[in-house]
Amino acid sequence: MAHGVCEPDGAGLAAGAGPAADSLNAQWQQAVVAEWNSAFGGRYPFNNASSDVSLPLLAKYLNADSGRIAQFLQTRLKGVLHKEGNHWVPDSINSQGLAFNPAFLNAINTLSHISDVAFTEGNAGMNFRTASGHCRGCDADRP
């Protein structure tokens, strides 16, 4: 996850866009990317490795209410990005002068979707039920 948040746009508030974009990119790198890479860099499913990512650790980043990514988007990008349905999109009025990196938008929308699916009840975990029963024709029934 090394995508920069935004790239300066040639139009609009160009004078303020460069430093603003640089500041947001530095904040994103410090608040999310560096620790994400440290926590998940050598773990499956982000890398082909024998060590898996734990769901509680993943929830620290992906939880829609309290995760580091959501907190960053809701606090530091409030006003320049907003949610339309399930997707984060640039605010056409407030983001003038900032062109968001399409790879960044794609990544946060993908992670947001994963969060919606994996943490539907807010907890990091998987639930399943088992039921015992007799299976006719199964190998266990044979002498």
Describe the structure using short key phrases.
143 residues, mainly alpha, two-stranded antiparallel ribbon, 4 helices, 4 strands, 10% strand, elongated
Description:
The protein has helices at 14-40, 55-62, 68-75, 102-118; strands at residues 6-8, 81-84, 87-90, 98-100. The termini are far apart. The chain has one domain. The longest helix has 27 residues, at 14-40. The radius of gyration is 21 Å and the shape is elongated. It is mainly alpha-helical and 143 residues long. InterPro entries: T6SS_TssM-like, TssM1_hel. Residues 19-124 form the Type VI secretion system component TssM1 helical domain.
Termini Cα gap: 56 Å
Q: How many distinct folded domains? A: 1
What general outline do the C-alpha atoms trace?
elongated
Secondary structure tally, helices: 4
| CA-atom Rg in angstroms | 21 Å
- In percent terms, what proportion of residues is strand? 5-15%
What is the mean pLDDT? 77
Q: What structural category characterises the helix and strand content?
A: mainly alpha
Largest sheet: 2 strands, antiparallel
Q: Which stretches of 5+ consecutive residues score pLDDT under 50? A: 6-16
DSSP helix fraction: 40-55%
Helix and strand run: EHHHEEEH
DSSP strand count: 4
| Widest beta sheet: strand line-up | 1-4
